[in-house]
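chain below, 181 aa
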Amino acid sequence: MFDIQINKDLIDHCKKQLENCNFGKRTTDTNGTKEQQLVGLIGESAIRKAFGHQYVKCGDDYNIEYDFIYNTMKVDVKTMGRTSYPTKDYVNNLMGEQIDYECDRYIFCSYHKVENVLTVCGFIDKQTLLKKANKYLKGETRTRFDGTEFVLKLDLYEIKNSDLEKVYSMKELKLKLDFVI
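prediction:
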């Protein structure tokens, strides 16, 4: 895992985009709150910038299936907002409806909403995710490590940080992203 400090300009940019667009364009009622969409935009924009792309902009042909192409790989950035730094036992979520999207690799991130730090937890290809992730079905009750519970609105894949391909820098992420299958 490694951290990226998120600057005010990136946060302001993402907030402005949300004022003009709804980035939750899924086929269900699970498009996320504005805060969840903001967290996703921050994570995606920071990673896009690190890979030489521009921040996400309203009005661009926003693709819901993947966030950018790196060499030949279609990459989707998944970011969860938290008020703590992630550990190897924290889980990352992928909504079940997204598993059929045209995507080759997932980069999982955790955004510390208090300290404005994006932690790149690791990455994984779709086939390995399907083998290693736990799948939970719509309607099931999930219990978090702190004892709180919620009922799933749709199928969900959960994968631990410890099951992701480990990376310790952006340079290493770029190098490994193409070659690990």
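The mean pLDDT is 90. The radius of gyration is 15 Å.
thats it, cya
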